[in-house]
Design goal:
Layout: E1 4-9, H1 13-24, E2 48-55, H2 65-68, E3 90-92, H3 122-128, E4 133-136, H4 143-156, E5 159-162, H5 172-180, E6 184-187, H6 196-209, E7 213-223, H7 226-230, H8 238-249, E8 261-268, E9 275-286, E10 290-301, H9 302-322, E11 327-328, H10 330-336, H11 346-358
Parallel strand pairs: 1-2, 1-4, 2-3, 4-5, 5-6, 6-11, 7-8
Antiparallel strand pairs: 7-9, 9-10
Helix pairs in contact: 1-9, 3-4, 6-8, 9-10, 10-11
Length: about 375
């Protein structure tokens, strides 16, 4: 198979985990622990080539990609340091609303150091590098910046995988524009491989399917990476809370009243670094109107958890491009994203993805 030419916006922890994972799995065909698919229509992890990258941090801009992924404030656990030297140099992207004002109140090793560089012409770079797929890893709340890169994709014919909770693939107007140009798009807001949302969804569906009346639930998350620091600005969380809440509510026959469900980031704990701790509580009633309560604590490294889904999304997007299919890829979006254009139970979404891979489903 040919290579998959990818550009990344935001060379943070998620990008670092993905790039490390691509090389980690290059010789793990006989023992691909942690991958949902080693091969998708012949495409293996090693076929993913990151040919362009954009960031705004002075410690990353103008550095080769294999160095930038380990630069501060990145703090995720190391999968492998056996990374070949990349010719890809991280380029300065437009800042727009990508940096929350409150970040300046924290030390540089925790947050961004904005480079004094002129942004490059993103459209020109995408064309010159012959990029096929652009991954959006911008910080939560980067509405203007996400829409800027979406417009760049529409102008150049590049596919977008929107890992952030700015609604592009799940917005009817944006989805229509990608379909009219026959460009595949996947989104929105990546769902971790085994994360807070997927577990919460599974438990809600289990309770619902077993006849339990769910009265109240919450999901609280803490972490110490730049993402959690960024989300201390609650004004940037509107779409994030919508994305996570709708994802969980979609598993119920009748959604809970707003006052009985709380899902979202709780606090920033610096020493946790890229480790995310999630607390879930569910209160309901079983046979005879008897109370049942569930409490769960999940601890997981946040960024590798996301990469486990994106490595499949990239390859499914490439398959769609090979098949000349445009518009929202409904199956892989439902399986790997919190806020797809249409919600499905995760077991159903998995079957849809397998049908897409076999060519039995268009999108």
């Amino acid at each position: 198979m040919g290579e998959i030419r990818v550009a990344i916006v935001g060379v943070g922890n998620c990008a670092s985990s993905l790039i490390q994972g691509i090389h980690y799995y290059s010789d793990k065909k006989d023992e691909p622990i942690g991958l949902m698919h080693y091969s998708i229509c012949g495409y293996e992890p090693k076929d993913i080539k990151v040919v362009a990258a954009f960031d705004i941090d002075a410690r990353k801009v103008n550095r080769p990609l294999h160095e930038a992924i380990f630069a501060p404030p990145n703090c995720t656990k190391i999968i492998t340091k056996d990374i070949p030297h990349y010719e890809t140099i991280v380029m300065m992207g437009p800042v727009l609303d990508g940096v929350s004002p409150h970040m300046k109140d924290y030390p540089p090793h925790r947050t961004f150091v904005v480079a004094e560089e002129k942004p490059v012409d993103v459209v020109k770079v995408l064309r010159e590098k012959e990029v096929e797929i652009l991954l959006n890893y911008l910080p939560v709340g980067s509405e203007e910046a996400t829409k800027f890169y979406a417009e760049c994709c529409l102008e150049t014919g590049v596919s977008l995988i929107n890992c952030m909770p700015v609604f592009i693939a799940s917005d009817e107007n944006w989805a229509k524009r990608f379909e009219e140009k026959n460009i595949p798009v996947i989104g929105d807001d990546v769902k971790s491989q085994i994360g807070a949302t997927i577990i919460h969804r599974t438990l809600m569906k289990l309770f619902n399917d077993r006849g339990v009346k769910i009265d109240k639930t919450y999901q609280l998350n803490t972490g110490g990476n730049t993402d959690f620091l960024n989300m201390l600005n609650r004004e940037r969380l509107t779409s994030k809370k919508i994305s996570k809440t709708e994802s969980v509510q979609s598993q119920l026959d009748f959604p809970l009243p707003d006052e009985n469900i709380h899902i979202g980031p709780s606090d920033y704990v610096p020493w946790q670094l890229d480790n995310k701790v999630c607390f879930i509580r569910m209160e309901g009633r079983i046979f005879g109107d008897i109370p049942v309560n569930l409490e769960l604590r999940l601890s997981v490294e946040d960024s590798p958890n996301s990469a486990g889904c994106i490595i499949d999304a990239i390859r499914c997007c490439k398959v769609a491009r090979d098949r000349k299919i445009g518009g929202v890829l409904e199956s892989i979006s439902a399986y790997t994203m919190k806020h797809p254009i249409k919600q499905y139970p995760d077991s159903v979404a998995k079957l849809m993805v397998e049908e897409f891979i076999r060519g039995e489903r268009e999108r």
